[in-house]
Amino acid sequence: MSPGLGLAILFVLIGTTVSALVLPRRGSVLLAFVLAAVGVVAGELVAIATRAGGPQLGALHPVADAIGVVLFEVTGAVLAPARRRGP
After folding, report:
1. Does residue 5 lie in a domain region?
2. Which of 25, 33, 72, 85 is 20–30 Å from 15 (CA)?
3. Residue 6 lies in a domain
4. What pTM value is reported for the model?
5. Rounded Cα–Cα distance for residues 20 and 32 (Å)
6. Closest Cα partner for 32 from 62, 83, 85, 84?
7. Residue 87 domain-assigned (yes or no)
8. How many domains is the chain built from?
9. CA-only gyration radius of the chain, Å
10. How many CB atoms lie within 10 A of CB 9?
11. pLDDT tens, residue order, the chain (87 aa)
12. Domain, as residue range, for 43
């Protein structure tokens, strides 16, 4: 496994965990996981297209990836309905 892929997986897992801790009743963990993965991919695409993604660490741009994860997680939290606790 390449170090870039390992770092991308780490970003996805951290983004999912932080999202679940900050907003525990918004959406599901699976939704947060998917949104974090899409955020990393989108951050990389923007960094590659604009060549302004912050410092490059291996094959990834951590600043652009973190911003992408935050944007997608916040958007998902706002759009996802609040879950209700069972009786």
Report:
1. no
2. 85
3. no
4. 0.79
5. 7
6. 83
7. no
8. 1
9. 14
10. 13
11. 677 778 888 888 888 888 888 877 777 788 888 888 898 888 888 888 887 766 776 677 888 888 888 888 888 878 877 666 555
12. 27-79
